[in-house]
Design a protein that fits this description.
It contains three helices and five strands, in the order ββββαβαα. The protein has a five-stranded mixed sheet. Strand 1 and strand 2 form a beta hairpin. It is an alpha+beta fold. The termini are far apart.
């Protein structure tokens, strides 16, 4: 994997991968914070710039999202297809979300589609 830095821009709902030198955003996970029925990070999209694909950036972003959630005592309720697949391949790092939480996340997204 290339040398990247990951930063959480919580107000913008973006977990960003910065290329070497820390300037250019080479990938990101767009997410929101669900408040009810429990607080959770809900990733919606994972995007890696074409010139940086195949370098493990998306996986690093997914891993960091779960690390942040664990550190903050939150659950991850993935709606992003990439994060869902990543979690299935890494069950030791990515605990499964409760189905009720996933339903609530889908309902929230349907009611607030702007920006996603």
């Amino acid at each position: 994997m290339s040398d990247i830095e990951i930063r959480d821009d919580r107000p913008a709902g973006r977990l960003e991968a910065l290329g070497s030198g820390g300037g250019e955003v080479v990938g990101h996970i767009q997410y929101f914070v669900l408040e009810s029925p429990a607080r959770a990070l809900v990733p919606v999209h994972t995007i890696v710039e074409p010139a940086h694909e195949g370098q493990g950036i998306a996986g690093s972003l997914a891993r960091e999202l779960y690390t942040i959630a664990a550190r903050e005592g939150l659950t991850v309720a993935p709606l992003c297809p990439y994060v869902v697949k990543w979690a299935e391949r890494h069950p030791d790092e990515a605990p499964a979300a409760d189905p009720e939480l996933l339903r609530a996340a889908r309902a929230w997204l349907a009611a607030h589609p702007e920006g996603f």
